[in-house]
Amino acid sequence: MNKDIHILFGLRIKELRVRAHISQEELSFRSGLSKNYISDVERGTRNISLKAISKLADGLKVEVKELFNFSK
C-alpha cells in the first residue's frame, strides 16, 4: 500500500458517497459534519477523528469497517 492512509480513506468516502448518489452537501446534512470538512476528508487533507468516522458511516448508512475497505 503506497498511498497515504488519509488519501485512501478520502477516496473510499468519495466512492461510497458517489455510489449512494448523494452530494457532499447531502452527506454533510446526514452526518452532521460541515461540507468543507467532508471535502477535506475526501481530498485526504484532514486528520479525521474516530467520532467523525462514526458520523460518516452513519451518514453513508454503512458499518464503520466498510469505510476501511481499500482492497478494490
UniProtKB/TrEMBL annotation:
PROSITE patterns: HTH_CROC1. The keyword Glycoprotein does not apply. It holds the Pfam family HTH_3. Residues 13-67 form the HTH cro/C1-type domain. Keywords: DNA-binding, Transcription, Transcription regulation. The keyword DNA-binding applies. One of its GO terms (molecular function) is DNA binding. One of its GO terms (cellular component) is cytosol. Transmembrane segments: none annotated. This is Transcriptional regulator. It comes from Faecalibacillus intestinalis.
